[in-house]
Amino acid sequence: MDPRSEVVIRQQDYLNGHVLLINAPNDQLAKNLPDQVQASVWTWNYADHQGFQNSGIHSHFSVEFPQASFDQVVIFVPKSKELLNYILHVVVSHLKLGQNVFLVGEKKGGVERAAKQLQPYGKTLKLDSARHCQFWQMKIEKTEQLKPLEHWLKSYTVQIDQDQLKVCALPGVFSQDHLDVGTAVLVPYLSQVKSGKIADFGCGAGIISAYLAKLNQNQQIFALDVDAFALRSTELTFQKNNLDLNQLTLQPVTGFRDAPKDLDAIVSNPPFHQGIHTNYDASEELCQLASVHLKNSGELWIVANRFLNYPPLIEQSFGQCMVKADQQGFKVLYACAK
């Protein structure tokens, strides 16, 4: 069991009634709480959501608070400070004065900083420090009126050749307030990508998906991501650029194996973080499985840190891998399915 969950179990006597576990790890915490607790989960991680559902745990996959009433919430600290601000606002907009909000997180994950973000809403108390984690309590003394999701958007403009693309990103989404270097290195090559049915794996704020749609109105774009905030951001980026939403299919995935088949192209700046931890499983799976999801002569285009050893994985699957660019610490890799 995750050490954060173990700390919650150590302090389970504080919990009772309908308890919402927010951003909880995919483990059996909800099933190991005492009888006086009816636990549900709110997650924006689709892989975790599938895991909870498969275990018979009630899970809500969304960027928005579940439509239900709760006695208490336990927030597992997310990596992003802005995302925690959004979650806290939503929580105190749905709960009442005097209700308890608990916060749990790893010390190296910034739990002490996160606990300070509770202070505008009530007095905080550290209840436990164990397993390199901390567990905090805050009794709500100030509620808020719920603000629309758009209030939390960050927007910026990307210049691509003669084109401008407006990017919309919600809290916690990769590259929320600027174009990341990897995508900037890849973007000039998007005009070379084979047209048709294209998957953008790890779509993030939708920069790649939106630009591919802008280049060709006949493209059929599948935006794939594990994160509900990324999928919604991609949709908002399409809307902001007046792109046809009929071109776009938003698809939550647990990994690349959930991607559609018979694709003309796969384009990706693949993810390699899971919360605060580095995890290359998703991008390695992409390299190994991409050819199975492509039509004959379908293309794989990915950008990755120069130090990541993806070419051998791609060569095992495709028989070849071409380096199209090597600049600013990133490589653009290309392969064609036989």
Automatic annotation (TrEMBL):
Domain Methyltransferase small N-terminal: 5-156
Source lineage: Bacteria, Pseudomonadati, Pseudomonadota, Gammaproteobacteria, Moraxellales
Coiled-coil regions listed: none
Enzyme Commission designation: 2.1.1.172
Enzyme class, spelled out: transferase
Chief place where the protein resides: cytoplasm
Keyword Kinase in annotation: no
GO CC annotation terms, alphabetical: cytoplasm
Similarity section: Belongs to the methyltransferase superfamily. RsmC family.
Domain Methyltransferase small, first and last residues per copy: 165-333
Domain of life, source organism: Bacteria
Function field: Specifically methylates the guanine in position 1207 of 16S rRNA in the 30S particle.
Alphabetized PROSITE patterns for the sequence: N6_MTASE
Location in or out of the cell: Cytoplasm
UniProt-listed InterPro entries: DNA_methylase_N6_adenine_CS, Mtase_sm_N, rRNA_ssu_MeTfrase_C, RsmC/RlmG, SAM-dependent_MTases_sf, Small_mtfrase_dom
Encoding gene (name): rsmC
Assembly notes: Monomer.
The name this protein goes by in its record: Ribosomal RNA small subunit methyltransferase C
Keyword rRNA processing attributed: yes
GO MF assignments: 16S rRNA (guanine(1207)-N(2))-methyltransferase activity; nucleic acid binding
Gene3D superfamilies documented for this protein: Vaccinia Virus protein VP39 (3.40.50.150)
Catalytic activity, reaction form: guanosine(1207) in 16S rRNA + S-adenosyl-L-methionine = N(2)-methylguanosine(1207) in 16S rRNA + S-adenosyl-L-homocysteine + H(+)
Keywords: Cytoplasm, Methyltransferase, rRNA processing, S-adenosyl-L-methionine, Transferase
